[in-house]
Specification:
- The chain is an alpha/beta fold and 332 residues long.
- It has a domain of 229 residues: TIM Barrel, CATH 3.20.20.80.
- Helices cover 41% and strands 16% of the residues.
- It contains 11 helices and 10 strands.
- An 8-stranded parallel barrel has the order 1-2-3-6-7-8-9-10, surrounded by 5 helices. A two-stranded antiparallel ribbon has the order 4-5.
- Helix 1 runs parallel beside helix 3, helix 5 packs parallel to helix 7 and helix 10 runs parallel beside helix 11.
- The longest helix is centred in the middle third of the chain and has 24 residues.
- It binds zinc ion.
- Zinc ion binds next to helix 6.
């Protein structure tokens, strides 16, 4: 059983060393460090210090393109998008949106730079976190629009499908987006491997074909992936806890069929009052389904990321620690 936790919101080494001891004591084997565009520009050496401390403590250091280009999940804003308006996704209303296009060559080049910088922190695994095409319900989205219809997407669609890209988001458009996300991830994982990084992929849990990552069977075949997983945040999705079982079962089945390691993320944020015991149950369910790589988002139950702070953050964090100790078979 391997356990991990995401870490963000602090770049001060002495504070991290304190937090790291808590993560180690709760049974964590790896720490997923967010490495946003802000970190890349302003905190590179400081993140490298956190990575080094993680490895010195005997834990594996993962690195996450948090919010990069707004193509990956995460609260961090994107400087790349601000500086490259010509690389933004264009929506069905012919207006750009605040997310880079995975098909744009400038963004592809930027992601290679990000990967080089991420590898040079000393991290061991690149964690490709919720890659996706534009999602209208996310921050800054516009209702009843879809993307991307930029010049690069239109050109590629014409080449691949032999006809112009339609205005409607047809099944063909969705299949095209799936191919594009796969191509984007194949390039990134191959480059990361070339730089000495292992690769882990976390896909969005809702298998909605609009964002391009619904076909888990296809994405789990990408090499050189070592880990394939998802993040069934049941409370955020307003689902019952069976959502965790369903996702765990599917990920285990698909990962095993493709000889990669299944991983499931635990919702460690936004826990309503009275729901804290579900954290323990969710991890039990993952274990029952055969998941042996479990990570939680994120450290201290995200008390410091206050828009998703649990009603009782300290209780939620205690329950996460209890769940982890149980998963490791340690005394509760
Ligand atoms: Zn595009």
């Amino acid at each position: 059983m391997k356990l991990g936790c995401s870490y963000f919101g602090n770049r001060i080494l002495k504070h991290f060393l304190h937090d790291l001891e808590e993560l180690r004591a709760m049974g964590c084997d790896f720490v997923v460090h967010t490495y946003s565009e802000n970190d890349m520009v302003f905190c590179h050496a400081a993140v490298a210090d956190l990575v080094a401390a993680t490895k010195d403590a005997g834990l594996e250091a993962w690195i996450d393109p948090w919010g990069v280009g707004k193509v990956f999940g995460g609260e961090a804003f994107s400087n790349f998008v601000m500086q490259n308006v010509d690389a933004m996704q264009v929506l069905s209303d012919d207006l750009p949106t605040g997310a880079a296009c995975p098909n744009n060559p400038k963004f592809r080049a930027f992601m290679r730079q990000w990967t080089e910088a991420a590898a040079s922190t000393g991290a061991q695994t690149a964690f490709w976190d919720e890659p996706h095409f534009y999602i209208p319900s996310w921050l800054g989205g516009r209702p009843n629009t879809w993307g991307c219809r930029c010049a690069h997407c239109q050109r590629l669609f014409l080449e691949q499908m032999g006809k112009p890209m339609p205005r409607e988001e047809t099944a063909e458009v969705r299949a095209f987006k799936e191919t594009c996300v796969e191509s984007f991830l194949r390039e990134l994982t191959a480059y990361a491997a070339q730089l000495g990084l292992e690769n882990a992929l976390c896909v969005l849990p809702h298998r909605d074909t609009a964002h391009g990552t619904a076909n888990w069977e296809r994405l789990a075949q990408i090499r050189p992936l070592r880990v394939f997983g998802t993040d069934p945040y049941w409370l955020a999705a307003k689902r019952d806890i069976d959502y965790v079982r369903q996702a765990s079962r599917e990920v285990v089945s698909i990962a095993r069929a493709n000889n990669v390691e299944p991983q499931i993320w635990l919702q460690g944020f936004g826990i309503p009052a009275g729901k804290e015991d579900e954290l323990v149950r969710a991890v039990e369910i993952m274990c029952e389904e055969g998941v042996q790589n479990i990570a939680v988002w994120g450290v201290y139950a995200c008390e410091h990321l206050s828009w998703i702070r649990p009603a009782n953050p300290k209780l939620a964090w205690e329950k996460i620690k209890e769940a982890f100790r149980r998963a490791k078979g340690l005394s509760v």
